[in-house]
Amino acid sequence: MCDARKAKASNTWLQRRIDEQIFSSGLLYVVFTLATTDHYRQQMFVITSPAEAKERRQLYRYSSRFYIMTHFSISIVSDTVCPWCYIGLRNLQAAIDHRTANHPNDTFSLTWHPFQLNPNTLQGQTVDKRTSYETKLGSDGARAVFDRLRSAGTAAGINFSFGGRTGNTIDSHRLLELACRQAANSEPSSAQSVPGQKVLQTRLAEEIFADFFEREQDITDPTVLSKAAVRAGLSGVEQDFKAFLASDDFVDVVHKTAAAQRQDGINGVPHFTINDEFTVEGAQEPTAFLHLFGKLAKRTRAVL
């Protein structure tokens, strides 16, 4: 371990700078890059307690900069036919964009978990989307909901269209599970993302939401889902995803995970959990997320 006090006394040390390209998956990050005439020596610490933070602070008190970054791990429980989940995602993304614009070294990861609003719908059976709303809410109630969604959607950059058909969402959730597993194998860490980067699962969720709510596509159709997977960048071609959807892969995983959400008391979506501590229920405005980001970051920095 490098002792910065000794380094300060040596004329071989030319500068101390922060390498902003490295991040880790802990709560608090302190990164030092110490440059010598011969090579770069890099020290990175993931601080796990106030006592450790105090120790590191004392050791590196002569460093010209002390760099801290916060990682926000966000768990999203949603259904792919939930319009408020789509709005909630857009509001969350707006909050992340605002946060990274002002704190460019903070990082975010989004992990999606299944929930089925209509779990008893027979797989392969679809109904007209507009009719399904009218059956539940009546004609006047459906019109009121459509007006409210159009207004909220416009604010979030979504052009809602209520034509098309709807049905059981199990296959879309299975595909999201596949995206999660592919990302875990191909990205630096399944729990990390650099600022502004959209990981595979989120890209797929966006494509499925857009298909259902804006393009009037039937997301129970394997062809529609397979094309969404290709556009999102999953590894494979359209025929690969059709073969996957024709199998039983991840059916039990989705059912068990969705059941576990209800057992945990989640009865409505969207439901966001940030760093396993704070929850946001419903399609809240970006300010709701920004408040919690600031609260968590302030707590992180307070240990120093």
From TrEMBL:
A UniProt-annotated Pfam family: DSBA
Annotated DSBA-like thioredoxin domain residues: 74-291
Species assigned in the record: Extremus antarcticus
Any GO molecular function: oxidoreductase activity
Organism lineage string: Eukaryota, Fungi, Dikarya, Ascomycota, Pezizomycotina
Protein known as: DSBA-like thioredoxin domain-containing protein
PANTHER family on file: GLUTATHIONE S-TRANSFERASE KAPPA (PTHR13887), THIOREDOXIN SUPERFAMILY PROTEIN (PTHR13887:SF41)
InterPro entries cross-referenced by the UniProt entry: DSBA-like_thioredoxin_dom, Thioredoxin-like_sf
